[in-house]
Amino acid sequence: MTRQYLFLENRRVVTFKQKIMAWYDLDDRKETKKEYLARVKYEELICKKANSFMDIVDGELKEGVQYRIITEHGFNAITVIDYVAKFHELTEIYIAVYRMNQQSVNRLTEFIDNENIRCNIILSSFFRQNKKYEKWSKDLIAYSENKKNVSIVFAWNHAKVFLAKTKDERHIVFEGSGNLSDNARIEQYLIEDCKTTYEFHKNWIDNILNLK
């Protein structure tokens, strides 16, 4: 197996323009001007990250290669979803993470609706049992109640793993120290296209989902 090590510090971000659909173009849900502007800004940020990520891995991920990354920039699995979707049609997603933020939830649910994919999520029970019951967790629970293709459980979880399977049998694994939020801390990540690793993580996540 080949490994590629990278350290990102003050990296120049290459951007590209993308047409951003308004929330009212997708469905009948109402959104304030403030919420809409915040979401559009986040989508532009995702585009920049995804483009920079393609530079890191030299275009498309190579099967059997591990990419190990250290970064001081905000970086999460939503970036990887956008990246993989540029090359492949996704069929299922698995996410085990401590917490998300509202922008990640909005982007993830929008992606699930547009692509009609299966999504399984494990989150920390802290954000359901604690008095600090954050809005993003409430929104995610409400969203999943009306979706047969979305499963969410809250557990005593601190793992950070993202899995994506594609229609052409690619098995993308993204794991590391960061949550589905955008804190600009020093974080480490590993990304690879590996069926063995994918099935390993999928099995233990499925076990927890089934127990709940």
Description:
- The protein has a single domain, classed as Endonuclease, Chain A (2-Layer Sandwich).
- The N and C termini lie far apart (36 Å).
- Strand 6 and strand 7 form a beta hairpin.
- Helix 1 (33-56) crosses helix 2 and helix 3 (102-115) runs parallel beside helix 5 (135-145).
- With 212 residues, the chain is α/β, with parallel strands linked by helices.
- The protein is 37% helix and 25% strand.
Rounded average pLDDT: 76
Here the CATH topology equals Endonuclease, Chain A
The portion of residues forming beta strands comes to 25-35%
Rg calculated over all Cα atoms? 17 Å
The low-confidence parts are 4-27
Q: What is the terminal-to-terminal distance?
A: 36 Å
Largest sheet: 8 strands, mixed
Broad shape: globular
CATH architecture: 2-Layer Sandwich
| Structure classification | alpha/beta
Helical residues, percent: 25-40%
CATH class: Alpha Beta
The CATH homology group name: Endonuclease Chain A
Characterize the quaternary organization of these chains: single chain
**Distinct helical segment count:** 6
Give the number of DSSP strands: 8
Major sheet strand order: 1-2-8-7-6-3-4-5
Q: How many domains?
A: 1
String of helices and strands = EHEHEHEHHEEEEH
What layout of secondary structure does this protein have?
Layout: E1 2-8, H1 33-56, E2 65-71, H2 77-85, E3 90-96, H3 102-115, E4 118-124, H4 126-129, H5 135-145, E5 150-155, E6 161-166, E7 171-176, E8 187-193, H6 195-211
Parallel strand pairs: 1-2, 3-4, 4-5
Antiparallel strand pairs: 2-8, 3-6, 6-7, 7-8
Helix pairs in contact: 1-2, 3-5
